[in-house]
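Title: Comparing notes on inverse folding

I've been comparing how different people in this forum approach sequence design from structure. To keep things fair, I'm posting one structure and asking everyone to reply with a full sequence. Here's the target:
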């Protein structure tokens, strides 16, 4: 059944929609920050010098994170993200899968919004991130263009899927701020209606970041700053070209980006968990609670260990540069 909602129309036309006041900070978001705080405590207990442990465990969230980020923990972001490490998946590979995050992923109010775009048959996509961004001036130089802790380069979300997923995944991104997000602290930026260009050629940045080819050309378009209040969510079309700015404030900017795909379309990240979160047929919903969700990730891990990677995707590269932004703009 084709979905006909105002929201979907807007998303397909503009490439983004800001939906106001969907979530409640105390009930829906703060529990996730609390769980991240717990993860930081575990990391401090494991990695901090003995003499500093007791004191730092009493720090508040931000001071603690700043401390933890200086401990030189390999792949620190992994501890705050619900995904397996991209490479070298091992039996003890850790990931952030708390009950609070499960509650967010399956939140009725989020699914009500998603249903207006994808229809009633909705799967949770394994392409999801949390992003804890310190003021850019506090970041090590190498992390400034790392999208989980620094600026995110111009890209389309469909570009980070398998070739099959790039072609056939019907997906929507739900971006959720845990802190008020402004131009100053690094909100996302997009260009209205640029999603209509379809999937473009991307290149790999200096740290493997996925970036639209010739992205400098986007500077000449009028930017749409996707500022958002706590409680709002921002929806992105899979072909929306977007990036995020530097955090030039003195405070943290924290967000999560969840994704959902329409049942019957591929996730683009096989064999990672891709399960029904809403369906008219209740028998389709087989992952009913947090523990079953973790079991799916552990099952996926066991499939990834022998092949040693969790996901790989070829950058979209169409022949003869025909999908280069540069060429499309000249047409
Ligand atoms: O939050 C950010 O910095 C970027 C998010 C993003 O690019 C995405 O969700 O696709």
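Reply #1:
Here's my take.
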């Amino acid at each position: 059944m084709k979905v006909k909602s105002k929201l979907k129309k807007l998303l397909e036309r503009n490439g983004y929609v800001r939906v106001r006041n969907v979530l409640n900070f105390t009930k829906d978001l703060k529990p996730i920050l609390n769980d991240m705080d717990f993860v930081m405590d575990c990391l401090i207990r494991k990695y901090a010098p003995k003499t500093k442990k007791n004191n730092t465990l009493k720090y508040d969230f931000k001071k603690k994170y700043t401390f933890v980020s200086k401990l030189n923990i390999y792949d620190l972001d992994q501890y705050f993200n619900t995904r397996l490490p991209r490479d070298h998946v091992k039996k003890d590979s850790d990931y952030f899968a708390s009950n609070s995050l499960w509650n967010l992923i399956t939140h009725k109010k989020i699914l009500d919004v998603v249903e207006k775009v994808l229809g009633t048959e909705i799967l949770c996509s394994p392409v999801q991130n949390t992003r804890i961004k310190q003021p850019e001036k506090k970041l090590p130089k190498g992390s400034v263009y790392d999208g989980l802790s620094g600026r995110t380069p111009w890209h389309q979300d469909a570009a980070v899927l398998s070739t099959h997923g790039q072609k056939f995944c019907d997906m929507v991104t739900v971006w959720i701020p845990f802190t008020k997000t402004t131009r100053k602290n690094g909100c996302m930026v997009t260009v209205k209606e640029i999603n209509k260009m379809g999937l473009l050629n991307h290149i790999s940045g200096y740290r493997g970041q996925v970036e639209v080819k010739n992205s400098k050309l986007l500077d000449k378009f009028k930017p749409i700053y996707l500022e958002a209040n706590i409680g709002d969510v921002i929806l992105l079309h899979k072909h929306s070209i977007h990036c995020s700015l530097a955090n030039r404030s003195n405070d943290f900017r924290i967000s999560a980006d969840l994704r959902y795909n329409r049942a019957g379309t591929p996730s683009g990240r096989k064999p990672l968990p891709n399960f029904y979160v809403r369906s008219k047929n209740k028998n389709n919903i087989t992952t009913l609670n947090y523990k079953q969700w973790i079991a799916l990730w552990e099952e996926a891990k066991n499939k990834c260990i022998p092949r040693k990677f969790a996901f790989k995707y070829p950058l979209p590269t169409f022949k003869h540069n025909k999908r280069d932004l540069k060429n499309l703009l000249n047409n």
